[in-house]
């Protein structure tokens, strides 16, 4: 179906060449066959959906909605194809007839340039000439019919017939000019024939032919008379039968038109051969008078019946549209958009049909009033027009309400889709946060060093920024929902959507708190880790200093040297001890807040024990230095 729709999209211009137009027609006939196949497949799918509904399947409603969309799309597709095929077929038919007429003219032109040999050749030539006139009139009839029907082609059909109308008009003008030149050649040829045959014999034959033609024309007028009592507002079947009856006699009418044209031209030759002008003029005038009456009556009859048939076709199609039921709004943005588009196209097509029906009905009514001789009745047709106007008023109002409802459904689906995207963004951010947190917690103690903690903090700052961006989006969406009207949202309306937005905002708030708490925890961990690292560094440095001082003391040989070493060591060490005790106090506070009373106490005990060990080492070294000083001379 997508392929067929793609093939029909865009504006198509009818070609000027017959082969090009035939290819275009064949392509559309293939598409029509494909559309029929699709209709069969869709019918089978609808049957399956019906079976699912009987089984109370949870997916039945969804499939039913989709099948409804496809059915509506296929209906519009088939309608466009049918209208295109009808227009293309009429155009191709004209081009074929025009080509045939042109070939016949060329053949006759070559024959009329040669001198007639015998009577058999003359009769054959006359038959060919009358045959050409019939086909020429048929070509003109097809051309005028195509031009008339082109005015009814909807713009939404995507078929540009402007150039084709120009081609038809140009072809008819060219062939008319060629026919006039050929007729002059034919007259010259007939003059040569008239010198061979007896004038009296020719005149007698002409009068018999003319009498027969007048009789045939009068009979044709009587044949057209029975349709005069028909009511054109009955129904499509009745009016179509009237048109078919006319179409059956139309070939004979075309033949009579050709014979009249032939006889009129022949009569001009007798003036040059001594036949009394008055007698000839009276007989020709009688022929033309009868022919004009029949011709006008036939033209009026054809136009009225053709317009009436088209009116009933449009009326029936429009009535089916007015009586058809509409499916409920479908969920999903794409389906909602498609459903709205289909409704708008359907509404536009219905408006086109309505305007066309009113126009056609008025044309039929006016034509019947002017064609008094035909006596057609349009009473029921006027009743149909009045009924159409009454029914359409309610349908237009319902179609407008339907469009508002579908537009509201589109807004609702868009809101739901945007809300779903916001929810997914929230879930993704929350998932990343949980994964980050878990990946850190599952590490061993050695891997959870200061660098790892700082990396975690950087990630958390990034997540906090993303959360703020998401919160702004939700705020903007909440404002959009709050300013929307009841018409823009179906179902539970703005209240339902606002509740969903508020719930999402609450979840975002909870996530924000979790992010902030974890970030603060990481920052405390970083401070604790840094303090512990600094304390450990102090312990290591002091231990090294104690070892070095002990080594230096063993090298001192006098009291003065030991005293200097003692004073320097004491001056260097003891001021740092209160600083470390203050640092231990900070470590204790952070550890208790971070790990709790029990775990925090265990964590601090290690640091305190280490500190006590260092202090004891300092005291022992100081005591040792004093003892050494006392022993030395």
UniProtKB/TrEMBL annotation:
The keyword Coiled coil applies. It comes from the Eukaryota. Pfam families: Spectrin_7. The keyword Coiled coil applies. Residues 419-473 form a coiled coil. Residues 97-191 form the Spectrin repeats metazoan domain. Keywords: Coiled coil. This is Spectrin repeats metazoan domain-containing protein. It comes from Scleropages formosus.
